[in-house]
Amino acid sequence: MATPPRLDGPRMPPAYGGPPRQLVILLHGYGADGNDLISLGGYWQSRLPGAAFVAPNGPEHSEVVPQGRQWFSLGNYDPNKLRRDPAGASAEYDRREADVEKAAPALNAFIDAELERYGLDESSLALVGFSQGTMMSLYVSLRRERQCAAVVGFSGALCGASGTPAATRSRPPVFLFHGDADEVVPIHALFLGVEGLAAAGVSVEWHICNGIGHGIAPDALELSGRFLAEAFSGARQPVEVAQIGDRA
């Protein structure tokens, strides 16, 4: 088996100045890089003063942005078709499972190395993704042996939802955010993700950002920061699968 590519990216140390008590790994979207998300740490440092933030660059050069990176190719991805045919979205995101699976070893190796670097374990780890980074966060977190503290996903999708229940090994609490005007990953992907996670027994909450396209809205930043702080402290109570909904 080939050695997965080694990842790295921009970092932000804990605000309180000591060694990290938590680790938040930020996974960028298609065509961006770690610099696109590392600033999220600045929004959340007041709630998470003991957290270190790191935003690894994806393993591949972007096929659309000369200086960008990607976790995997999105060749033939057509958001306009998905908006016209929401029923076809499930097949599209199931088809992407092989791509996410191929990129997963590099991300898992990075997670292991970062936890070792700081002397932390998964109980002190959160994965946060945007778009393609959400696809990676969900896929990897559910298949790791040890459960991380939390997963946050912005404007993304659950790849391989039909096989997720059988493949799930850990069930971290998940909070998904999506703009109702998302032109890249249509909002139907949010509902498919919620259904797939619920089928796997995962505690999942979701929030729709009104009038927002493919991006991260201020209300999503506030709610996600609160969610992460509560998840790390143990104050966040898991939602019952039967009660999934928008709890904002």
Describe the model.
- The protein has 248 residues and is an alpha/beta fold.
- The chain has one domain: Alpha/Beta hydrolase fold, catalytic domain (Rossmann fold), CATH 3.40.50.1820.
- It contains eight helices and nine strands.
- The strands form two sheets. A seven-stranded mixed beta sheet has the order 1-3-2-6-7-8-9, with helices on both faces. A two-stranded antiparallel ribbon has the order 4-5.
- α1 links the parallel β2 and β3.
- The longest helix is centred in the middle third of the chain and has 22 residues.
- It is globular.
- 45% of the residues are buried.
- The C terminus is likely disordered.
What is the residue-averaged pLDDT? 92
Radius of gyration: 17 Å
Q: Biggest β-sheet, characterized?
A: 7 strands, mixed
Strand content: 15-25%
Structural topology:
Elements lengths: L10 E2 L9 E6 L12 H5 L6 E4 L5 E2 L7 E2 L8 H6 L4 H7 L1 H22 L6 E6 L1 H12 L6 E5 L9 H4 L6 E6 L8 H12 L4 E6 L8 H16 L15
Parallel strand pairs: 2-3, 2-6, 6-7, 7-8, 8-9
Antiparallel strand pairs: 1-3, 4-5
